[in-house]
Specification:
homodimer, 12 helices, two-stranded antiparallel ribbon, alpha/beta, 46% helix
């Protein structure tokens, strides 16, 4: 799967992920009207509106990008109906040939992590049969519990040729509270990054590991350091766009081969129609606004990378 | 909800939580046969077997205990059908008057944590209506992202009179990798505990905060220290029983009022019928074996607490 991700990045010239983190407040009036008309102002209605919204964005951007990153919380808030749409979204993105990074940030003690790994990346055994359920290609994982909480995810990834992005330095304002705390002069996240490199050696692709890391665009200095500590890890970079990260901040997240990082934007793409810059498209053409926002993001990152060559 | 938890602990004389973490391998043959007979060896069949299994344990223990702690991963591994049983289990435990601690270990950047809080503790708004979905009373939360990842959970807890247990020092063998790393001579988990005390002040009950902590039974020295650092926080203590913790290890997790901690056992209770000690009940009477295991656990903890008075 890391090979597929790399091939798709090379083919699209776009180290870019679209974050499918829908909120009802992003969904255009005409879609809400249709779904609420059919199902009422119910969880079913909300779920249908979000599904239609997602489908529009996927249809309008899938040829430009290698991967999507649905944030499961945005679906989980609508309960079972929401999670049904999460699954439908993953399946539909697979139909369109996209790599799917499930942003689930799971992580627990060993036996529990094994269950999460089964549900999101693997296959569950029932009697003599096996079933895959949520079936993402990669998921994000929280490292706070250490190796025995991570290992079961890696075991399933090896069986299924899938991968992980492990939180190292997150993009949010208070990420430093624990992650930046200095131990012998080095922040906690550096120790986490060293472990990611170790864990990554357990499951290598050709040039990169199946085990990557999350380092936020909002902390470019951390990106520069972590690039060196984890040379074989792909870095998933959130925080571009709506959270404040810019293309120029991102150059040090990449290796000299021009690979090694993939930049996520969520709101900046899927709610583009609500931004002044793309207001001209009008709410009905929200998907076209998203497409334009993807094109602009690809160009911004490409220019930043060209500037350092 | 913290008041309800305290009242129920006082009434049952049992600072005990039953961890509803079912696996198909725990489910007795007669239940599997029935569910697979009805639904086949399918996800539906597995989900039904687990639901019947849970129901038996709840029916046979609810009068002895204040609370249950379903581990969502064990349901999530069966996909949507599994999560349906998670929800059914939460609802059924509420019918039986139990406090439900959803062991979900969620945690993300602010806007995403807000969505998790909505789905698990709050109500989601759809048009002019509001719906609660998973509706646990407490959930466990991962602190790695710091205050702005925790704050949205606290906000929803304040609206709904609900609470959190925040991971401080987990029970698993490699929890020390990051949690024990020394910063200025003190382990990371102490800094997390100090934050829990700070966050707890934002949402106080009468004598304890709605914001508690998780400290594993397998690290009793951490329990002793954290008890002092977070005097108003209820401590949820995993790792008793199958993971190796004993009653005698637990005394320092409690305050002098005999409160302040609640001890979880999962496998030790729900798979009691598979242990030599309870084999006499026979697989068909797994629920009675669970009841006996709860009674023994209550006695073990009570004796340990009496010994220090």
């Amino acid at each position: 799967m890391i090979q597929k991700l790399i091939e798709k990045i090379k083919k699209t010239h776009a180290p870019v992920v679209v974050g499918l983190d829908p909120a009802l407040s992003y969904v255009p009036e005409h879609l809400l009207k249709k779904s609420f008309g059919e199902y009422g102002e119910t969880l079913e209605g909300a779920a249908d509106a979000i599904w239609q919204f997602n489908k529009g964005i996927i249809d309008s951007t899938y040829d430009l990008i290698p991967a999507v990153k649905p944030q499961i919380a945005m679906y989980e808030q609508f309960g079972l109906r929401g999670l049904e749409v999460f699954q439908k979204t993953v399946d539909y993105c697979h139909e369109k040939g996209l790599v799917v990074i499930g942003d689930v940030k799971r992580g627990d003690i060993g036996s529990t992590s094994a269950a999460y790994a089964t549900g999101h990346l693997g296959r569950v055994t029932v009697g003599n049969s096996q079933f895959s359920t949520f079936n993402e290609d990669f998921i994000t994982v929280n490292p706070y519990l250490g190796t025995d909480g991570i290992r079961p995810f890696i075991d399933v990834c090896k069986e299924e040729n899938k991968g992980l992005f492990i939180l190292v330095k997150t993009s949010n304002p208070s990420s430093g509270e624990f992650q930046d705390r200095l131990c012998d002069g080095r922040p906690v996240y550096e120790y986490v990054g060293e472990k990611v490199a170790e864990w990554g050696a357990m499951h290598m692709g050709e040039s990169y590991s199946y085990i990557g890391a999350v380092v936020g665009a909002t902390y470019p200095e951390a990106g520069r350091v972590m690039r060196k500590i984890m040379p074989k890890a792909f870095i998933l970079v959130p925080g571009y766009g709506a959270q404040g990260g810019k293309g120029a901040d991102l150059v040090h997240y990449f290796n000299e081969d021009g690979l090694g990082a993939i930049v996520n934007s969520s709101r900046g793409i899927i709610a583009a129609h609500q931004q002044e810059q793309y207001a001209r498209f009008g709410e009905e053409h929200y998907a076209e606004a998203s497409r334009q926002a993807v094109l602009d993001m690809i160009q911004d990152i490409d220019q930043a990378l060209q500037a350092v060559v």
